[in-house]
Amino acid sequence: MTKSKSFFSPIVIIGMLFFIFGFITWLNGTLIPFLKIACELEYAQALLVTFAFYIAYVFLAIPSSMILTKVGFKNGMAWGLVVMAIGAIIFVPAAQSRSFALFLTGLFIQGAGISLLQTASNPYISILGPIESAAQRISIMGVCNKIAGALSPLILGAIILEGASDIETQLKTSLAAEKEVLLNELAGRVIVPYIVMAIALVLLAFLIYKSSLPEIDTSKEEADTASEAGEKSVLQHANLVFGILAIFCCVGVEVIAGDTIGQYGSSLGISLDVSKNFTSLTLIAMLVGYFVGIVAIPKFISQNKALMGCGIVGVIFTLGIIFTSGFTSVAFVAMLGLANALMWPAIFPLAIKGLGKKTEFGSALLIMGIGGGAILPYFYGKLAESFGIQEAYLILIPCYLYILFFATIGHKKQSW
User: Fold this and answer.
1) Which neighbouring-strand residues pair with 355?
2) CA distance 334 to 337
């Protein structure tokens, strides 16, 4: 752990990074209805947006840990931003050709860059201070992340989905040639925003590279016991293995709540011009949860008890979605943000506790769990097509129950 008495400057820098990848991550909720129209997709196909983005974590997390071992945390963060910029620039030819495959390629590359960024920044902020208050620091990062997430769909939605309901109506009555012109014009709306994004990411990468961000030597972190630290495989840490599945469920339910709410509102007859902003409601609810975490952890409530509350509240709100209708049901989807807020901040430090010099590799395995954001929303989409978009939210209940298990039992098991 760094010996610096003040963590303010590193926290500000890492907060900027969390803002950036929060902004980009939560654009997916806007891209789903946008690409559904522009590329003429079915609902489950449109959810491949989240699949392409989050599946990158599964493939790139372990290579990311190897990169960090070679180049260090700071340089790893800078390279992550550069990779994200490459993914953003691919949106230009994707829009020009209206190629869904190219859009997915750009999203995958962006996900790869964020995988490197996440693999560096999450353990960095966790071990920058006492592990007992890690959830508090990650909650601060979550505030940065979700403020960006609340803003991004509003900003991008205002640009690329302006007049979306009118466009949908025109497409239904247009001849083939007119339809092609409309769709090309719609697809072209993403070009300028993503060029600006790519430039901003490269500039930030340069600033991070030149910054005074201190390096952290994880080999000095406290392990579970001195003998076990040298002998145990990382997978012998049961809390880590349980934590990987907890992250899988956590990110899956978070993505479903944030990225499907707009389409869910639209399916209930709410205009797309209104429902395109619903993702921001979920993220505002998450912000409220993060502020609770900053104030309450660890002074008033422990990390694991906060996580228990998240699991219980998640089940209750999911039942609210199923057994209500209209705006009330949509409001329960938004309020899932409150249940989801403290899950990641609590799971991550509980899962890496006692890993010592294996922290980078253990963190990479946890980052692989972000693949839940690829798989669970896609299954949600398939369930929605088969049983109904409202009934498909039942997939959330076993996820919240598992998180409750991790909070009560799973995190305590340091070995098998």
Assistant:
1) 223
2) 6
End-to-end CA, the chain: 27
Burial per residue of 60-74, b for 16 or more beta-carbon CB atoms within 10 angstroms, e otherwise: bbbebbebbeeebbb
* pTM for this model (two decimals): 0.80
Maximal CA-CA distance, the chain: 73
- Which tokens hold the place of 377? 């929303």
223 three-class SS: strand
Q: How far is CA 379 from the centre of its chain?
A: 17
pLDDT tens profile 309-359: 999 999 999 999 999 999 999 999 999 999 998 898 889 888 988 887 787
Tell me the H-state helices in 222-302: 226-231, 238-259, 261-267, 272-275, 278-296
Residue 10 near residue 127, CB atoms below 8 Å: no
Burial of 335 (0-12, 13-18, 19+ CB in 10 A): buried
Q: How far is CA 40 from CA 96, 172, 194, in A?
A: 15, 12, 21
* Three state DSSP letters for 82-144: HHHHHHHHCHHHHHHHCCHHHHHHHHHHHHHHHHHHHHHHHHHHHCCCCHHHHHHHHHHHHHH
Q: Is 32 within 8 Å of 50 (Cβ atoms)? A: yes
- The ranges assigned to domains in the chain are 8-211+224-412
Higher pLDDT, 301 or 244: 244
Place of tokens 């899950």: 343
Torsion angles phi and psi, residue 44, rounded to 5: -65, -35
pLDDT by residue (tens digit) across 252-298?
999 999 999 988 998 998 888 888 889 889 989 988 888 888 888 77
- The CA distance from 169 to 396, in Å, is 33
**Rounded-to-integer distance, Cα 48 and Cα 61, Å:** 20
Per CATH, the architecture of 8-211+224-412 is what? Up-down Bundle (1.20)
The candidate with the shortest Cα–Cα distance to 343, out of 413, 283, 286, 261, is 286
